[in-house]
């Protein structure tokens, strides 16, 4: 216990020193209030930002889209969590998106957005994001800003090393943070950790035309804690690199027990070789239950399919598939520079940043320059792969991205700063404080072959003294820093939703040109769509009542419905008849224990309502759509169970005259 206390006190002390020094720098620099900085981030009314930034929402389970350089929040995109703002996960069409092998799971912990790539460049087609808690990977369509697919990962616990893509989005990968027994071996003693607990590196094939994902294979790897990955580029195209920690294979008090060794590992995986082995019929099918959820843009609805097996390759059986490279202790990520020759790791508890050479790695493999093996996996000698080290970069190095001009930028969590250094010489060029406890950072295109450069964005965990207080919990933040000159310059900071673990940033023009403005009514294949008011109707089958409703400025049709009985299951299918950009309609019912719907132009969405009492229940449009928005409403009459009140529906009829 004494040893734990010393470790905890040391880290706490370093953090306090870092925050204290950060406060001092902030008082003297005043960079964020500089007139020149204000000009650089000012986006005039009616003008657009030059970049989109997609930031993970952390414990919100969502993604947030911001405009850069203004820092304006543009949209919160629902992914893994129910969202009453638009009915995601509440409507009958979207509920299947949140189905898992554990049942309906309406929440997750998002960490790492990843843009799809073509020839190593961000192409603006899709955005992938991981669910860390219930292991899942989602794919978003950036033409609609909707989540189109969610794939659960079997044999994985803590899907943190995810969802990084190869150079042409051939594969998206996910790996386990918490090694666990594989799905076929459930009831195992925790004391058998070293014998029975394994990692499963999942390779998900992505269809180049539709983006549809399918698990191609999983690699059974030793039971470490696997962390962030990046794929190779150019000469290293066929490889992907993961960091891993807890090579001690501890299962209790990891703060101390997983920090014993001076070095952990980078795991280098030849994914091309794995692909070839699977094509040859190698590996074995293993039982694995996992959900695959797909949203159909034509029907505006999702389906959920339960899969039952997965192809697995045990890396011990296939020499040359993976190699371990020693890396300073407790690394949190590995990053590949734009040319694909160097890859950089960040040991959280190290005083150096190692830069490795892909060419040297291949040479070391060819010459069998091993220092031994781990569970049959060759471990390369550190110095045979090392190109050099960045000396004394700061405290707590985490993540590195690149500007395409030969410079790298590394976040320092403990000393709360970003360090700029030259890739070929490892010389430190500049450093700038962040406020405070930076985690990830994002250079636009900084993990691609051709970075956009211009900015680096710090994603910070702590904002003491930066904003108005909001009780015990303060917002997290992002800080925009100019990197066009030799010296970095803070331009702006702005609050973010949830906990912004990571963000990816892309020129707006790559997304704007493909943006969908409305869904064509003639292409609406939802079986419950009413494509004109003439098709509006109410149908009863036993205790089920289907209301086929239309919405258009400024009324709902029908707007008076009688003959609903207490205990009925009422499905209200609302079709938005608008064919104009940015004219959604909402729908809500008094007392419904569901949420509202927000229906896009040309779309159909369904709200299930089970009235539990008799009475008159108003319904209305929740999205202000016109001058007569308040008048866009109607009534349900709910009668006692077994009532003989006939089922009737009306629009524009004076019921008092009947």
From TrEMBL:
<protein>
    <submittedName>
        <fullName>Sec-dependent nitrous-oxide reductase</fullName>
        <ecNumber>1.7.2.4</ecNumber>
    </submittedName>
</protein>
<dbReference type="Pfam" id="PF18764">
    <property type="entry name" value="nos_propeller"/>
</dbReference>
<dbReference type="InterPro" id="IPR026468">
    <property type="entry name" value="Nitrous_oxide_Rdtase_Sec-dep"/>
</dbReference>
<dbReference type="InterPro" id="IPR011045">
    <property type="entry name" value="N2O_reductase_N"/>
</dbReference>
<keyword id="KW-0186">Copper</keyword>
<dbReference type="InterPro" id="IPR008972">
    <property type="entry name" value="Cupredoxin"/>
</dbReference>
<dbReference type="InterPro" id="IPR051403">
    <property type="entry name" value="NosZ/Cyto_c_oxidase_sub2"/>
</dbReference>
<keyword id="KW-0479">Metal-binding</keyword>
<dbReference type="GO" id="GO:0050304">
    <property type="term" value="F:nitrous-oxide reductase activity"/>
</dbReference>
<feature type="signal peptide">
    <location>
        <begin position="1"/>
        <end position="25"/>
    </location>
</feature>
<dbReference type="GO" id="GO:0030313">
    <property type="term" value="C:cell envelope"/>
</dbReference>
<keyword id="KW-0732">Signal</keyword>
<keyword id="KW-0560">Oxidoreductase</keyword>
<dbReference type="InterPro" id="IPR001505">
    <property type="entry name" value="Copper_CuA"/>
</dbReference>
<dbReference type="InterPro" id="IPR015943">
    <property type="entry name" value="WD40/YVTN_repeat-like_dom_sf"/>
</dbReference>
<dbReference type="GO" id="GO:0005507">
    <property type="term" value="F:copper ion binding"/>
</dbReference>
<dbReference type="InterPro" id="IPR041114">
    <property type="entry name" value="Nos_propeller"/>
</dbReference>
């Amino acid at each position: 216990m004494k040893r734990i206390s010393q470790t905890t006190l040391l880290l706490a002390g370093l953090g306090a020193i870092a925050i204290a020094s950060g406060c001092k720098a902030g008082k003297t620099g005043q960079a964020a209030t500089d007139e020149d900085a204000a000009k650089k981030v000012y986006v005039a009314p009616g003008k657009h930002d030059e970049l989109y930034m997609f930031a993970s929402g952390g414990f919100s389970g969502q993604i947030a889209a911001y405009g850069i350089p203004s820092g304006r929040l543009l949209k919160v995109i629902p992914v893994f969590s129910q969202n009453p703002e638009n009915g995601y996960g509440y409507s009958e069409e979207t509920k299947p998106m949140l189905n898992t092998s554990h049942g309906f799971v309406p929440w997750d912990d998002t960490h790492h957005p990843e843009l799809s790539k073509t020839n190593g460049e961000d192409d603006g087609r899709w955005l992938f994001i991981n669910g860390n808690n219930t292991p899942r990977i989602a794919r978003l369509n950036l033409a609609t800003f909707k989540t189109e697919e969610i794939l659960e990962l079997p044999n994985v616990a803590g899907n943190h090393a995810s969802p990084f893509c190869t150079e042409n989005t051939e594969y998206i990968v996910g790996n386990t943070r918490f090694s666990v027994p594989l799905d076929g071996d459930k009831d195992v003693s925790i004391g058998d950790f070293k014998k029975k607990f394994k990692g499963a590196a999942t390779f998900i094939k992505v269809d180049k035309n539709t983006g549809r994902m399918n698990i191609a294979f999983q690699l059974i790897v030793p039971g470490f804690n696997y962390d962030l990955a990046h794929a190779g580029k150019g000469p290293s195209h066929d490889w992907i690199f993961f960091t891993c920690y807890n090579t001690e294979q501890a299962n209790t008090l990891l703060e101390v027990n997983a920090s014993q060794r001076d070095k952990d590992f980078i795991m280098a995986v030849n994914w091309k070789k794995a692909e070839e082995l699977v094509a040859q019929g190698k590996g074995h099918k293993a039982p694995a239950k996992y959900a695959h959820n797909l949203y159909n843009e034509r029907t505006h609805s999702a389906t959920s399919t339960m899969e039952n097996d997965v192809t697995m390759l045990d890396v011990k059986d296939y020499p040359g598939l993976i190699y371990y490279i020693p890396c300073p202790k407790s690394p949190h990520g590995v990053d590949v520079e734009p040319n694909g020759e160097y890859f950089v790791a960040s040991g959280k508890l190290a005083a150096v940043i190692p830069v490795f050479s892909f060419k040297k790695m291949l040479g070391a493999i060819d010459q069998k320059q091993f220092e031994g093996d781990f569970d049959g996996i060759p471990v390369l000698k550190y110095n045979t792969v090392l190109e050099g080290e960045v000396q004394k970069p700061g405290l707590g190095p985490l993540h590195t991205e690149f500007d395409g001009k030969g410079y790298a930028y590394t976040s320092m969590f403990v000393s709360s700063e970003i360090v700029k250094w030259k890739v070929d010489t490892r010389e430190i060029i500049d450093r700038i404080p962040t406020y405070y406890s930076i985690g990830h950072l994002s250079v636009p295109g900084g993990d691609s072959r051709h970075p956009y450069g211009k900015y680096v964005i710090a994603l910070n965990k702590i904002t003491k003294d930066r904003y108005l207080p909001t009780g015990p919990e303060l917002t997290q933040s992002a800080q925009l820093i100019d990197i066009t000159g030799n010296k970095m310059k803070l331009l702006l900071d702005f609050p973010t939703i949830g906990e912004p673990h990571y963000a990816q940033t892309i020129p707006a023009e790559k997304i704007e040109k493909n943006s969908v403005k409305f869904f064509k009514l003639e292409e609406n294949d939802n079986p419950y769509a009413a494509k004109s008011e003439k098709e509006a109707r109410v149908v009863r089958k036993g205790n089920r009542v289907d209301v086929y409703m239309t919405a258009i400025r400024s009324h709902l049709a029908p707007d008076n419905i009688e003959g609903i009985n207490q205990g009925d299951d009422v499905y209200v299918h609302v079709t938005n008849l608008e064919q104009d950009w940015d004219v959604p309609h909402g729908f809500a019912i008094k007392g419904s224990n569901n949420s509202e719907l927000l229906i896009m132009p040309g779309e159909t969405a369904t709200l299930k309502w089970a009235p539990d009492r008799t009475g008159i229940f108003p319904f209305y449009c929740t999205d202000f759509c016109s001058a007569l928005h308040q008048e866009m409403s109607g009534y349900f009459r709910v009668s006692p169970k077994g009532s003989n009140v006939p089922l009737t529906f009306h629009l524009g009829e004076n019921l008092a005259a009947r």
